[in-house]
């Protein structure tokens, strides 16, 4: 089987390629990645001899048409993925997330290739902190940021291409991922590498915002489950009951690193900051039989801290520039 993975040099895509090489030797993998600031070929170094890497843009229709024509399955991870960046400059988010997805959909339509679309729970907007509700497959779309609105738009393109053109697609919307190879701009790797470099972790606003954490390997196993067993045209929510508020995450990172739990700074809040995400993954569990392996966020976090400790050469080159960019807008609150 010939598989095209877009965004395979990014965090989740690279872990997906690692898992697929290890567990599915019959799959022939091509990765298409633009190698933006978020893409890193080093993340594919352990598997580079087992795959074909193509440096290019998902919005390049000629290139995409050629690669899709030669594939049996496309899994589309490539995206601009960071909310804070989308507030500073939404333009690449519109281009990659909307125009790039459109280019892929036109190619899979033309060549009748099976397509799986990777998306996020942020398309549903946020929940109140005291609301017992969780997102389900029927929750109405209500995105808050340029990032989440372009992901929502790309999901809607997929649904329309299924209905109008009979494209053979499935969609998944997953909660916040953590694990190896995540860029140091994101919350958990930023705080782990802050502690490792002697910088105090930075908590936005009050830190009461809640994210529903899932290990990246559990997300990727769910993606394969949906490809194998999911129904064409359907959406599946992926989550592992990992709801934790941001302050608790920072305190746990500090504690697991042998530091004082209070050794962090409150900084200016993110504009439009979503309060809470929570996933009800009942459909994925009951209909397709998926279960997370990492059921304990604390032990997954500990393993992730150990990975960053052991792989400084991977993240060190990007740390100073990332922190310098944050320093241009972030102000202490106390
Ligand atoms: P990431 O930013 O780490 O990686 C994105 C990858 O896409 C990079 O390798 C980058 O070079 C590549 N890319 C960007 N623009 C491209 C373009 N125009 N053409 C080709 N390649 C391009 O992102 P991630 O966290 O790995 O997220 C992957 C996908 O999963 C995204 O679609 C994201 O919306 C979704 N998702 C992420 C999370 C999360 O917690 N990180 C949760 C749910 C869903
Ligand atoms: O330094 C920080 N301090 C802080 O308090 C950073 C970088 C973030 N935060 C907060 C903001 C969020 O409430 O931590 C939470 C997580 O932040 P991010 O890592 O930026 O993730 P989020 O905005 O929740 O989006 C992530 O999950 C859904 C991914 O980046 C998206 O790609 C995915 O769709």
Automatic annotation (TrEMBL):
Catalytic activity, reaction form: dTDP-alpha-D-glucose = dTDP-4-dehydro-6-deoxy-alpha-D-glucose + H2O
Key word Lyase present: yes
EC nos: 4.2.1.46
Annotated NAD(P)-binding domain residues: 4-294
Keyword Hydrolase in annotation: no
Pfam families: GDP_Man_Dehyd
Key words, A-Z: Lyase, NAD
Entries under SUPFAM superfamilies matching the protein: NAD(P)-binding Rossmann-fold domains
Single Gene Ontology MF annotation: dTDP-glucose 4,6-dehydratase activity
Position of the signal peptide: none
Cofactor requirements of the protein: NAD(+)
Lineage top rank: taxon: Bacteria
Enzyme class: lyase
Family membership noted in the UniProt record: Belongs to the NAD(P)-dependent epimerase/dehydratase family. dTDP-glucose dehydratase subfamily.
UniProt-recorded name of the protein: dTDP-glucose 4,6-dehydratase
Originating organism: Rhodococcus artemisiae
């Amino acid at each position: 089987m010939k598989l095209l993975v877009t965004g395979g040099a990014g965090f989740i895509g690279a872990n997906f390629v690692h898992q697929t090489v290890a567990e599915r030797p019959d799959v022939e993998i091509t990765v298409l990645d633009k190698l933006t600031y978020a893409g890193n070929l080093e993340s594919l170094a352990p598997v580079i001899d087992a795959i074909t890497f193509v440096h290019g843009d998902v919005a390049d229709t000629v290139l995409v048409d050629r690669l899709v024509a030669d594939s049996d399955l496309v899994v589309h991870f490539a995206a601009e993925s960071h909310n804070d960046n989308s507030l500073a400059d939404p333009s690449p988010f519109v281009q990659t997330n909307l125009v790039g997805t459109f280019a892929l959909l036109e190619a899979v339509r033309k060549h009748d290739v099976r397509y799986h679309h990777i998306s996020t729970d942020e398309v549903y907007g946020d929940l109140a902190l005291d609301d017992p509700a969780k997102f389900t497959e029927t929750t109405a779309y209500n995105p808050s940021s340029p990032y989440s609105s372009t992901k929502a738009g790309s999901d809607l393109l997929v649904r329309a291409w299924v209905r109008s053109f009979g494209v053979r697609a499935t969609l998944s919307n997953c909660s916040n991922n953590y694990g190896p190879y995540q860029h140091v701009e994101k919350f958990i790797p930023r705080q782990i590498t802050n502690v490792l470099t002697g910088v105090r972790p930075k908590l936005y606003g009050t830190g009461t915002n809640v994210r529903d954490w899932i290990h990246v390997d559990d997300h990727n196993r769910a993606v394969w489950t949906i490809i194998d067993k999911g129904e064409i045209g359907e959406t599946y929510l992926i989550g592992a009951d990992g709801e934790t508020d941001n302050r608790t995450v920072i305190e746990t990172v500090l504690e697991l690193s042998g530091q004082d739990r209070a050794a962090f700074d409150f900084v200016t809040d993110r504009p439009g900051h979503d309060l809470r995400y929570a996933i009800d993954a009942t459909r994925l569990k009951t209909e397709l039989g998926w279960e997370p392996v990492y059921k304990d966020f604390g032990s997954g976090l500990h393993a992730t801290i150990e990975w960053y400790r052991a792989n400084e050469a991977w993240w060190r080159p990007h740390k100073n520039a990332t922190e310098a960019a944050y320093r241009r807008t972030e102000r202490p609150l106390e």
